[in-house]
Amino acid sequence: MNGNEEREARYRVVFAHTYPDVLAFAQRRSDPHRAEDVVAEAMLTAWRRIDDLPYDLGEARAWIFGIARNCLLNDDRSRRRQNAVAVRIAAAPRPADEPDAADRAADRVDLSAAWADLSESEQETLALTALDGLDSTQAGAVLGITATAYRLRLSRARRALRRRLEGAATGDAPEPEGVRS
Fold it and tell me: Rounded to 5, what percent of the chain is helix, strand, coil?
């Protein structure tokens, strides 16, 4: 057995030994529907860091519980950020020359629904510019990408939001990303 096969075999044993317990751990601490995603992320992290994985099964189990805990914390922070952005969108100041209150309310409902349909990445990209006021260089630094890559991501996120808003206005469902008619 070569080194890669050994590492894979070791990971399989640890995975089989820990997965049910880590899943129960995550289910007790989060939405049961999110728990599987969190555990999958934890197990992927464990695989990526296989060289740090303790050889003792008990220690490996505790190590993966720690990873799962961090994944749960990250998931929770992400959800809170999404909720905070949705609240800020709803509370954004309104220009005095907007149409009547009913039209403003309908626009806000459409925007809120369109925002909720965006991916986390699209929401974060738009929020960095529209809500946090960062330029492309600063926002790229936050995301660990170049300013050019950020501008491309921002353009795609704007396009996705626009499609969803247009779909809300016409009552059509938005076209999935990457699908062209």
Answer: 80, 0, 20
pLDDT above 80: residue 140:
yes
Token pair listed for 179: 């699908």
Cβ pair 74, 31 in contact under 8 A: no
Residues 6+ apart with CB under 8 A from 110: 165, 168, 169
> Torsions phi, psi of 17, nearest 5?
-75, -30
Give yes or no for a contact between 104 and 113, defined as CB atoms under 8 angstroms apart: no
Q: Long-range contact list for 108-115, CB < 8 A, 24+ apart?
A: 110/165, 110/168, 110/169, 111/165, 112/86, 113/164, 113/168, 114/161, 114/164, 114/165, 114/167, 114/168, 115/85, 115/86, 115/89, 115/161
Written as six digits, the tokens of 153 are: 């991501």
Model pTM greater than 0.70? no
Element (H, E) at 150: helix 147-170
DSSP per position, 24-44: HHHHHHS-HHHHHHHHHHHHH
The residue ranges of DSSP E strands in 23-99, in sequence order, are none
What value does the mean pLDDT take over residues 160-171? 76
